[in-house]
Amino acid sequence: AGSQLREIFDKINNLLSGKSVVSGGRTVSVTQHPQGLDFVYYKLAEKFVNQGEEEVASHHDAAFPIAVVASGIWEIHPRVGDLFLAHLHKKCPYSVPFYPALKEGTSMEEYQRMLGYQVKDSKVEEQDHFLKRMSGLIRLYAAIIQLRWPYGNKQGPHPHGLNYGWRWLAQMLNMEPLADVTATLLLDFLEVCGNALMKQYQVQFWKMMFLIREDYIPRIEAITSSGQMGSLMRFKQFLEKCLQQKEVPLPKGALQSSFWRS
């Protein structure tokens, strides 16, 4: 509910502002230790990113309440935003976007980690689990860039707004696609913030969508084996529907104004 989200936001904001906050039955304050604030900034940013790969990966709608709190905190405490991006880019290089290359002397295990895979006891996680986590992270990022905390004073621009989303999309399309990964993440990204990008960039946005269909989809098809077609087919269907209807639907789970009265 909106009221619960406000409580969570206020508690985090109070903690970062140096006020005393009750947590787990104890009263804590960042002033209790010289590095207290730095530590909390770091751990909070890490927690936001973890919510992307855990909560949002399992429940896509969760991206919006988490993102609106993260965006509001970022606006008041820019350091959290910097650290959020650092944690996000480390967990999901595709959010840069960046595809790490295998360098000489790098072990396969280390390389898998660089690509964002979880490696435990030399066992690499399953591809579908990996894609699910990456989807959660990209969805959280796509929600943050379009949302602002509704109770802020909103003096300046969004600290990391839709222009970053536009840049991400353009950079993705300038890179050679990866089987499975590229189609999955483009679909996640456009499902979450395609509607907002459409409203902001209008004609330019539709040119980009047309370019994806005519030029980029064939490039993805060329490197996709028959067993990896699922994500590509879903992306193609989404794109066709948007181009036919000249509309990107509002994302499922987007916060309506009625939410804040709950």
Write the layout of secondary structure elements.
Elements lengths: L1 H15 L4 E3 L2 E3 L7 H23 L4 H14 L1 H14 L16 H7 L4 E2 L2 E2 L2 H18 L17 H12 L7 H42 L6 H17 L17
Antiparallel strand pairs: 1-2, 3-4
Number of helices: 9
Following the backbone from N to C, one meets helices and strands in this order, namely: HEEHHHHEEHHHH
Total strands: 4
Sequence stretches where pLDDT stays below 50 over 5 or more residues: none
> What is the CATH T-level topology?
Serine Threonine Protein Phosphatase 5, Tetratricopeptide repeat
CATH class: Mainly Alpha
For the largest sheet, list the strands in their spatial order.
1-2
- Could you give me the name of the CATH homologous superfamily? GLE1-like
User: What's the gyration radius in Å?
Assistant: 20 Å
Number of domains: 1
Question: Could you give a short account of the major beta sheet?
Answer: 2 strands, antiparallel
Q: Roughly how much helix do the residues carry, as a percent range?
A: 55-70%
Distance between the termini: 5 Å
Identify the CATH architecture.
Alpha Horseshoe
Strand residue percentage: under 5%
Give the helix/strand class.
mainly alpha
What does this 3D model show about the protein?
This protein has a single domain (1-261), classed as Serine Threonine Protein Phosphatase 5, Tetratricopeptide repeat, CATH 1.25.40. The radius of gyration is 20 Å and the shape is globular. The termini are close together. Helix 1 (2-16) runs parallel beside helix 3, helix 2 crosses helix 4 (78-91) and helix 7 (162-173) packs parallel to helix 8 (181-222). It is mostly helical. The strands form 2 sheets. It has a two-stranded antiparallel sheet with strand order 1-2. A two-stranded antiparallel sheet has the order 3-4. It is built from 9 helices and 4 strands. Keywords: Coiled coil, Cytoplasm, mRNA transport, Nuclear pore complex, Nucleus, Protein transport, Translocation, Transport. Required for the export of mRNAs containing poly(A) tails from the nucleus into the cytoplasm. May be involved in the terminal step of the mRNA transport through the nuclear pore complex (NPC). Belongs to the GLE1 family. InterPro entries: GLE1, GLE1-like_sf.
